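Session log. Operator J.P. requested a structure for one protein chain; no other inputs attached. Running the standard single-chain path with token output.
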Amino acid sequence: MLTAKRIVTKVTKFFKGFFGGSCASLVFSLPAFANDLNTRYNLREPVTALARDLYFMHYVLLAICLVIFVGVFGVMFYSMYAHRKSRGYKPADFSDNHTVEVLWTVIPFLIVVGIGVYATPAVMAQKDTSNADLTIKVTGYQWKWGYEYLKGEGEGIKFLSTLTTPYEQRINAAPKTNDYLLEVDNPLVVPVNKKVRVVITANDVIHAWSVPALGVKQDSIPGFVRDSWFKAEKTGSYVGQCSELCGKDHAFMPIEVKVVSDEEYSEWVGLQLAGETKKVSISSAEPENADVLSQTDVATAKPATISMSSQEEVK
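Structure written below.
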């Protein structure tokens, strides 16, 4: 039979080898283990420097938690096994131990301080939205996202982004695709290797704009403006979801960010602006007596002169 000492020795050797060898190789190759949309137990593959920092930090903190878990429960189970009644041990009758109390207060405090010092640079980097190449306003609605390009190439473009997953899939009347509940009609399009600042707010209730692969997760709060940023280093489509419970269709509020080359982005901007110009031309050709008031008319007219349809349009 294995004695308690031999059991502890074997367990110690196992974890020493694991953390000294395998775990070290895992930590330094973490991005290789980030899966695609099929993943269930891992984070999305990071495509920004900030997301890689957060990804690595996640595993560092997970390793710290694992070491604490193994240490605490290892000592506890060893104490129960090695000092059991059948071996003649009797329970101690002391009521306190000042040394132990100081240690289990100081050690956790030092661990928390160490984690804070380690995480501070990443937190500060998340808030550095200066020198952005592109600024986009993100507005959360029940239950869709609104995007408006405020500064940089594409300024003036705005649109809504809504879920397009067929209703039949949602009620299990059709097979679900790999991008189930992540499909949108109008993805947010940005150029690769450009710093994009996102100014985030909400129109009704609290939402949260979250795209794990970009390292962005920020609450959108009505009446408040929050901001974050990302700089995608790889083209592709990266998805996320509203991460704050916002009502009955909270689960149907996906986010898609499409990162394209500079040439493709310029082409997309040209098409979008051409479409807006066409809309303006069509609206200017409408009859003068149409029941639609301009923003200037609405601002100067008395409430009684504004029709219900015009008020709804302004909203």
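Operator note: Confidence is low (pLDDT under 50) at residues 14-35, 280-315.
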